[in-house]
């Protein structure tokens, strides 16, 4: 599995992490999957806790026409004791950190299930240079 994050989504993540450094930035990743790649096209910041309730997830997924491919959060999630709801299965989780010198650091993983939920690390796809 790998993850491609559009420039627009990177800008949105960077801005949110910069805007709210003392609180956790979190929300939904919107885009699509093709084969073994997640394409993050944009984000939707949310005020809910680490993840929405099942009912709220269904409502939001309807609004975004099934384009929710995952979740993001600064400050970490997904430790051994974390609980992942069933709707998070096979979704992308993106942990973000704004580093003073290195900029935005993204750590992608996929929520998998085998007797219990766990995070399986994924790879960030290289961004190609823009054509002029």
Could you give the topology of this structure?
Elements: E1 2-5, H1 7-19, E2 26-34, E3 37-45, H2 54-63, E4 68-74, E5 92-99, E6 103-113, E7 117-121, E8 123-124
Parallel strand pairs: 1-3, 1-8, 4-5
Antiparallel strand pairs: 2-3, 2-4, 5-6, 6-7
Q: What would your notes on this structure say?
A:
With 132 residues, the protein is α/β, with parallel strands linked by helices. The chain has one domain (2-124): Cytidine Deaminase, domain 2, CATH 3.40.140. The chain contains two helices and eight strands. It has helices spanning 7-19, 54-63, and strands at 2-5, 26-34, 37-45, 68-74, 92-99, 103-113, 117-121, 123-124. Strands 7-6-5-4-2-3-1-8 form an eight-stranded mixed sheet. The N and C termini lie far apart (30 Å).
Pattern of helices and strands: EHEEHEEEEE
Radius of gyration: 14 Å
Give unreliable regions as ranges: none
Cα end-to-end separation: 30 Å
- Percent strand: 35-45%
Number of strands: 8
Question: Can I get a quick summary?
Answer:
With 132 residues, this protein is α/β, with parallel strands linked by helices. Helices cover 17% and strands 42% of the residues. The chain has helices spanning 7-19, 54-63, and strands spanning 2-5, 26-34, 37-45, 68-74, 92-99, 103-113, 117-121, 123-124.
């Amino acid at each position: 599995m790998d993850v491609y994050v559009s420039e627009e989504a990177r800008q949105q993540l960077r801005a949110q992490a910069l805007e709210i450094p003392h609180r956790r930035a979190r929300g939904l990743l919107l885009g699509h999957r093709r084969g073994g790649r997640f394409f993050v096209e944009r984000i939707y910041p949310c005020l809910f806790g680490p993840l929405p309730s099942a009912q709220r997830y269904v409502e939001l997924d309807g609004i975004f026409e099934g384009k929710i491919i995952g979740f993001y959060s600064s400050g970490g999630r997904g430790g051994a004791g974390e609980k992942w709801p069933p709707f998070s299965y096979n979704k992308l989780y993106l942990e973000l950190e704004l580093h003073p010198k290195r900029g935005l650091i993204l750590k992608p993983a996929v929520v998998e299930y085998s007797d219990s939920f766990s995070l399986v690390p994924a790879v960030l796809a290289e961004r190609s240079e823009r054509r002029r």
